[in-house]
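so my prof wants the structure for this chain in the tokens format not the other one, which i didnt know existed until like an hour ago. anyway here's the sequence
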Amino acid sequence: MGGWSVNLFSCLDNMKVCILGYIVPCYLHGKIAEALGKSCCVYGFLSLLPIASFICAIMIRKQVREAKGISGDGCEDCMTIMLAGPFAKCQEYNELGLDTMSRD
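here's what i got, hopefully its the right format
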């Protein structure tokens, strides 16, 4: 198993995703869930509810890791979401290659 190909704090490399993550994080959450075969609307809505958002964010991060063969565990996911949640969402979004704009 490997590591993340996108650094946790590299969201500034892609300003579009960075701005989306700051202004409408529910959009990123929903699109990441959709890429994993979940409902974009349901997960986007759940990201607006404090406790549900935290639980869903951990579950989604785990699924991204599993889909991409990234090493880690639930404790690491939990700490990343707690301490750097918006950065984690941008990292997951970029890791899945969901942004169609090229990075310059």
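also thought this was worth mentioning. The chain is about 65% helix and 0% strand.
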